[in-house]
Amino acid sequence: MLLQILTEPNKILRQVGKKLTLEEIGSKKFKKFIKDLTETMYIRDGVGIAAPQVGESVMFCVIAKDFTPTKEKDLILINPVWEKKSITKLIDEEGCLSVPGIYGLVKRYKKIKVKALDENGKEICFEAENFPARVIQHEIDHLNGILFIDKATKLRQAEKTL
Asked: For the chain, how many structural domains are there in total?
């Protein structure tokens, strides 16, 4: 089911999400939410999406499989945290489904280590670099009430297309 994406300004986008319990992760309601959030990401052409973007202030996001370290399946991150694994930062342009039509340059760590729970509540730990690391940092920012526009320079409006 397609979920409505909240856009800035919306107070839910600025809240720190609530950690999910194993009981919540195992519920039928949450399994449906995973499916609906993933479907919404693909329908809206996102490379990732976070629960707060659809009005759920919880620590959960999805990364599209083409933008994951393994490219094998969509990456479900529940209660994720990351730490830098390099001092190198890369600057690249970012946009966001919750800030439509605006783009800007954002500096992010090139390589990170991520710890989270998967869709079954099992702990996962992995490293990501380059674009997958960027996407993960962007989505985890959402879970902490941070939008890319808070970090971006050279913000610009997208050109209108027919």
From this structure: 1
Question: Digits of tens for pLDDT over the chain (162 positions)?
Answer: 899 999 999 999 999 999 999 999 999 999 999 999 999 999 999 999 999 999 999 999 999 999 888 889 999 999 999 999 999 999 999 999 999 999 999 999 999 999 999 999 999 999 999 999 999 999 999 999 999 999 999 999 987 665
What is the C-alpha to C-alpha distance for residues 69 and 103, in angstroms, rounded to an integer? 24
Residue 56 counted as domain residue:
yes
How far is Cα 99 from Cα 81, in angstroms, rounded to an integer?
23
Structure tokens, 93: 């342009």
Name the residue range of residue 57's domain.
11-157
119 included as an active-site residue: no
78, with CB counted inside 10 A (0-12, 13-18, 19+), is buried
28 domain residue, yes or no: yes
CATH code for the domain in which residue 39 is found: 3.90.45.10
In a domain, 68, yes or no: yes
The neighbour count for residue 154, using CB atoms within 10 Å, is 10
Kindly state whether residue 4 falls inside one of the protein's structural domains: no
Catalytic residue among 123, 127, 129, 139: 139
